[in-house]
Amino acid sequence: MYLKKKSLGLILGGGRLTQTLIKNCKKNKIKFYIISIDDDFNLNNIKPDIKINYNNLGDIFGYLKKKKN
């Protein structure tokens, strides 16, 4: 079960699933962070909070730990 007072880190690309996840997080007032690997995130109207290349995948965990509420 997800607690709304915590934030959610989403590793996303693009397409309908990504749009649905973002839409539902906003609808349910869930604070979230978008993490994109390289340039795979392709929604024009939404920017990822952080972009990481394949060589630095371990940085995702450091970023999420820093954002932990």
Descriptive terms for the model:
single chain, 20% strand, 3 strands, alpha/beta, 2 helices, 30% helix, 3-stranded parallel beta sheet, 69 residues
Model description:
It contains two helices and three strands; from the N terminus they run βαββα. It has a three-stranded parallel β-sheet, sandwiched between helices. The chain has 69 residues and is α/β, with parallel strands linked by helices. β1 (8-12), α1 and β2 (32-37) form a beta-alpha-beta unit. The chain has one domain. The protein is flat. The protein has helices at 16-27, 59-67; strands at 8-12, 32-37, 50-52.
The coarse overall form would be: flat
Question: What is the strand content?
Answer: 15-25%
Q: Can you list the strand order of the major beta sheet?
A: 1-2-3
The average pLDDT value, as a whole number, equals: 81
Structural class: alpha/beta
User: Helicity, in percent?
Assistant: 25-40%
Number of self-contained structural domains: 1
The number of distinct helices, counting runs of at least 4 residues, comes to: 2
Let me know the largest β-sheet: 3 strands, parallel
Order of helices and strands: EHEEH
Instruction: Report the radius of gyration as a whole number of Å.
Output: 12 Å
Number of strands: 3
- Low-confidence parts: none
First and last CA, distance: 16 Å
